[in-house]
Structure formats: C-alpha cells, structure tokens
Amino acid sequence: MENQKIALFTHSLKIGALYGLLSIVISLLIYIFNVNMLSIGFGIVYFIISVGLSVVVFIYGMRTIRDKYFNGYISYGHKFLVGLIIGLVSGWIAGLFGLLLYVYYDPGFIADQIDKFVIKLEEYGVDETTLMKQEESMREGFTAMGQIKSMLIRTPIFTVVLSLIVAAFVKKEINKDDGKVL
Fold it and tell me: What's this model's pTM, rounded to 2 decimal places?
C-alpha cells in the first residue's frame, strides 16, 4: 500500500510537470504571435481548451495510476488526489512562468493588451467610471502580487472543483477477465 501511495504521488507529479511545460509552450505561442489575450472571443476559446485539456490530462493520470499501480482498482479519494496533484503542479509551473514573463521579462506586453481592451470597451460605449474600474482591476491582476494571488487562490479552487468532478466519472475498476472498464 505504501508503494502505491508513493507511485500515486510521483506519477501525478510527473504528469503535472509535463502538463505545466505544455502550458508554458502554449503561453509562449500566445506571446510570440502577440495574440489579443483579453478579447472576449479568445477568452472563451482559451477557457474551453484549458478546461478540456485539464479534463483529458486528469483522466489520463487517474486511469494510468489505476491500471499500472493500483492493480486495476482505485478509490474516489485516490482519483481526487491524482487530479489535485496534477492540477496544482501544472498550475503553479504555468503561473510561475506567467509571473516571470508578464511581470518581470516583458511587463509592456500585458500593458499593451490592457490598452487594446480598454479601447475596445470605449468603442462599445462603456461609461468612464466602469471603464476606469475595469482597467484598474486588470492592471492590479497582472502585478506580481496579483499573479501570486491567482496561483495561491484561484489555481487550488479550480483544481479542487475539477478534480472532484473528473474523479466522479473515471471508472474505479477494470474487469481483469476482458480488460473492459466497469
């Protein structure tokens, strides 16, 4: 049983690190191609892809650990832990990279993104007070403290919720006779 717990932790850690590296590659592509990150269309598409990719990675991790290290049976709690570890590790790796890239390496990138967003809001006729509040909130969110807050608060909340949901849908055992998931 102790070996299973070690395998759960180390395998989840590896998957989380790889997913974190994939997230870094995606962030670099967004940065290199100067994608308008704050547009509504991009935000929706990015959210759907991020959640979908997280679900796929969590399922992969839960099934792999169940099949390789838990003899075809894994409890809900263990599935949840797998998703939690994967999500926290990948989220914190990606968050740390974002902090370094957008706050320290090229803070002008985010400033330009926010300026473009504010111009769009002005074109839509958003009143001055709302516009100023929105701009201030966005600029605060991309400070070092805003990024750290996101990594320490939003990432765990998102990960816990998604892990609870995904763990409920991943089958807990494999039928050894025919290899089918029960």
Answer: 0.84
